[in-house]
Structures are given as C-alpha cells and as structure tokens.
Amino acid sequence: MRYWINELWRLGYMLFGLGAMGLLLGELGGHLLAGMGWGLAAGLGLYVFLHLRHVRLLYVWLLKNPREAPPPGTGVWGDLFDRLYHYQKAQTQLQQRLRDILRRIQDSCEAMRDSVVMLDPQGDLEWWNSAACDMLGLQPDHDRGQPITNFLRDPRFIAYFETGDYREPLLIPSPVQANRTLQFHLTLFGDNERLLMARDVTRLHQLEMMRRDFVANVSHELRTPLTVLAGYLETYSDHVDQLPQRWQRGFDQMQAQTTRMQNLVEDLLLLSRLEIDSPDDDRDTLDVPSLLDSIAADARELSAEHHQLSIETEEPRQLLANTKEIRSAVSNLVFNAVRYTPAGSTITLRWKPWHDGSAIEVEDNGDGFDPIHIPRLTERFYRVDKGRSAATGGTGLGLAIVKHVLLRHDASLEIVSRPGLGARFRCVFPAARVAPALPTSPSSDTSTSA
C-alpha cells in the first residue's frame, strides 16, 4: 500500500508541475485554460510513457534471462523488479534442491540390488532402475509407457495386481529366468500410482524347500523306529505285572513320551504335506453341522465330560472343501480349547454366515490370553504358556496346521481373546467356498449341546 501511495503522490507532483507550467505559458499567450489543459495532458502522457517504458524493460528482461540482475526502475516498478528477481531466485534455488533430491533418490534406487518400478494410475511403466532390467527384462529404450502386465504375465501376478490388496508379498518365478524366485510387493501412493519392488529370494526359497524336505524326511524316518518302540512297549504292557516294581514309573514315562513323539511326527508329516502339495481341485460338499457333531463327540471323550460343549448352526448352506483337511483344522481348534481351558468351561462350535461367505467358530469362556501373542500363535511350536506344554500333551503344531489348511481353502483365521474373557477362533471362508443348502426336514434341529 505504501508504494501505491508514493506512486499517487508522484503522479500528483508531475501533474501539478506540468499543469502550473501550462498555466504560465497560457497566461503569457493569453489562453489560460487551454494552457492548463495542455499541461495536464502532457503530464498524463509522460506518466503513461514512463509506465510503457518499464513494461518494455520487464518484457525484455523476462524474455532474455530473468536470472540476471533486473533492469533499473523507479517507484513501484523498481520494487516490482526487485520482488520478481528475488522470487525467481528463490524458485530457482528450490528447483535445484528438488533436482538434487530426485537425483539422490534415483542414484539410491540405482544402487539397490532390488528392482524398483514406478507405475502410473493405469499401470503403465514410468521409471525403473537397472536391477529391474536384469530381473524383469525391461528395456529403457522402448518399454516406457507399456503396461506392466505385458512383461509379468503370470496369472498370479495379474490377479495380485488387479485385486488392490497388497498387504502380503507375492512369490513367483522371474519372467526372465525361471530358476530365479522373485518376491513382489506393490505400494499405492499419489493418485492411484503404484511402486513395484521385486527382490530375488531364490536362496531363501531354496533354504525353505530344504527345510521342508528335511523335516518331512526326518519325520518319515522317525516313524519306523517309533512304531517299533511303541509295539514293544505295548507288548511289555501285557506283562507289566511281571516287571520289577521300580521299573514301573520308567515304563509309564516311556509309553507317554513315545505316544507324544508319534503325535509330533504325524503332525510334522501332515504340515509338510500341506506346505508341499498343491491344493486339491476336487472339493467335497461338506455338511458342516454333521462334521461339528462328530468333532464334538471326540472332544467330549478327550475332556472326559469335564467341559460343556455346544453346537450352534446359523448357516443353512454347505461348505466346498476337503473334508479330511477341514476336520483336522477344526479338531485342532476344539482340542486346544479342551486342553487349555479349566474344567467346567463351555466350548461352543458355531457355523454361521459371515459377510459374503461363512465362518466356523470355536469359542470358549476360559482364561483367555494376552492379545500380544496373537500374531505368533500360528508359528510352529509357539506356546502362550510354556509351563503347561508337557502337561497338555499338545505338539505345538496345531494352529500352524490350521493356518495352512485355511490357506489351501482361500480362507483366513481370525483370533480374538482377552485375559479372563475366553478366546474365539474364527475360520472365515469366502463366498466361492459356500454351496447352496440342501433341503432339510422340518423337524431338523439347528442347535445341540451336551
């Protein structure tokens, strides 16, 4: 505002001076008013001329090189030139800093051994580092702007890319070298743009396969000697009255530990098969209420009637699944509830609709556990209470088996628990795994308990 006031004063002085001069000349010539008018017109013309001159200086300066010092100006034009120059200088410095940051980011990505690929909102290639050329076969000369699915044509990657759920990485063979295993991870940013990162995990994948093969082979080799030991112990148990009394405790412990090792080997073999074998394409039409009835009967026998078991059926539809695998998964959940809840607890088996699909729930009102353990519960041999591991007779592999069975059925495991409030394990199956209900008789029950 101060500059505009100064400019108005400057215009006033100019008009006053030229008007007074015109008035003086008009008085000498005998035309007072005409002289004053010509003086004012001359003042306005001079003022406009000065502004036009500054406009031309501004245009020439911006056209040639605005990074150079601005032309000299007077009044508000001088201040305008200075402000534009400082603004241009600040913008130039900011652009240089941004260029340096982008250059460092690109240099950092180039130094990475992992592939980094930037995709636009349509999924087309925008930029990638050198590692992507080696892992994915991208060529910087003519691949820019092409859809990423033109180069990664594995159906698993296309499904992973289109779902938009990138919480878990994807492992598939390299499109360039089939003997290399790559781990892909997509991240959304900006306006639905994507950052694709690919890591060579061939060595880790080979080690994982070696571990699986080792566990499967060792478990298989242990099966024969354990069977022999169990057979001899069973034979000796028929003549236990002939054994010395001091051997009785050791004999009982050998029987218990042999049985425990046999259960462990069987669980290890089952877990190895679930990890290695491909999921079966054949799906049984599973009557879940009947399955829950059968599992509840086994659980009552294990519990020795110390727990209250009930079954609730809220879902009339059936499940498309491998009967043996689902039975194994649900049995593990129910037997864990029997082992880890105190006598007198209630265990509920529930078959219910859940969102678009259905769910099998195993819920108890036992002691519960701290939610901090939930992320690790499905790890092999992980136990919430290690002090009770020997007393319960479990192998520590039950929830790991549940997790792999559900993965093979496109399902997921949800766990909710609080200390003192019991625990709920929910097996959630998608709509594709649910079949229409069979006709039922009017007298059929939907809930049983014992």
Automatic annotation (TrEMBL):
<keyword id="KW-0808">Transferase</keyword>
<dbReference type="GO" id="GO:0004721">
    <property type="term" value="F:phosphoprotein phosphatase activity"/>
</dbReference>
<comment type="function">
    <text>Member of the two-component regulatory system PhoR/PhoB involved in the phosphate regulon genes expression. PhoR may function as a membrane-associated protein kinase that phosphorylates PhoB in response to environmental signals.</text>
</comment>
<dbReference type="InterPro" id="IPR036097">
    <property type="entry name" value="HisK_dim/P_sf"/>
</dbReference>
<keyword id="KW-0813">Transport</keyword>
<dbReference type="InterPro" id="IPR014310">
    <property type="entry name" value="Sig_transdc_His_kinase_PhoR"/>
</dbReference>
<dbReference type="GO" id="GO:0005886">
    <property type="term" value="C:plasma membrane"/>
</dbReference>
<keyword id="KW-0067">ATP-binding</keyword>
<keyword id="KW-0902">Two-component regulatory system</keyword>
<dbReference type="InterPro" id="IPR013767">
    <property type="entry name" value="PAS_fold"/>
</dbReference>
<dbReference type="InterPro" id="IPR004358">
    <property type="entry name" value="Sig_transdc_His_kin-like_C"/>
</dbReference>
<dbReference type="GO" id="GO:0000155">
    <property type="term" value="F:phosphorelay sensor kinase activity"/>
</dbReference>
<dbReference type="InterPro" id="IPR021766">
    <property type="entry name" value="PhoR_N"/>
</dbReference>
<keyword id="KW-0418">Kinase</keyword>
<feature type="domain" description="Histidine kinase">
    <location>
        <begin position="217"/>
        <end position="433"/>
    </location>
</feature>
<dbReference type="InterPro" id="IPR050351">
    <property type="entry name" value="BphY/WalK/GraS-like"/>
</dbReference>
<keyword id="KW-0547">Nucleotide-binding</keyword>
<dbReference type="InterPro" id="IPR003661">
    <property type="entry name" value="HisK_dim/P_dom"/>
</dbReference>
<dbReference type="InterPro" id="IPR036890">
    <property type="entry name" value="HATPase_C_sf"/>
</dbReference>
<keyword id="KW-1133">Transmembrane helix</keyword>
<dbReference type="GO" id="GO:0005524">
    <property type="term" value="F:ATP binding"/>
</dbReference>
<dbReference type="Pfam" id="PF00989">
    <property type="entry name" value="PAS"/>
</dbReference>
<keyword id="KW-0812">Transmembrane</keyword>
<dbReference type="Pfam" id="PF00512">
    <property type="entry name" value="HisKA"/>
</dbReference>
<dbReference type="Pfam" id="PF02518">
    <property type="entry name" value="HATPase_c"/>
</dbReference>
<keyword id="KW-1003">Cell membrane</keyword>
<dbReference type="Pfam" id="PF11808">
    <property type="entry name" value="PhoR"/>
</dbReference>
<dbReference type="InterPro" id="IPR005467">
    <property type="entry name" value="His_kinase_dom"/>
</dbReference>
<feature type="transmembrane region" description="Helical">
    <location>
        <begin position="7"/>
        <end position="26"/>
    </location>
</feature>
<feature type="domain" description="PAS">
    <location>
        <begin position="94"/>
        <end position="146"/>
    </location>
</feature>
<dbReference type="InterPro" id="IPR035965">
    <property type="entry name" value="PAS-like_dom_sf"/>
</dbReference>
<dbReference type="GO" id="GO:0006355">
    <property type="term" value="P:regulation of DNA-templated transcription"/>
</dbReference>
<protein>
    <recommendedName>
        <fullName>Phosphate regulon sensor protein PhoR</fullName>
        <ecNumber>2.7.13.3</ecNumber>
    </recommendedName>
</protein>
<dbReference type="InterPro" id="IPR000014">
    <property type="entry name" value="PAS"/>
</dbReference>
<keyword id="KW-0472">Membrane</keyword>
<dbReference type="GO" id="GO:0016036">
    <property type="term" value="P:cellular response to phosphate starvation"/>
</dbReference>
<dbReference type="InterPro" id="IPR003594">
    <property type="entry name" value="HATPase_dom"/>
</dbReference>
<keyword id="KW-0592">Phosphate transport</keyword>
<keyword id="KW-0597">Phosphoprotein</keyword>
<dbReference type="GO" id="GO:0006817">
    <property type="term" value="P:phosphate ion transport"/>
</dbReference>
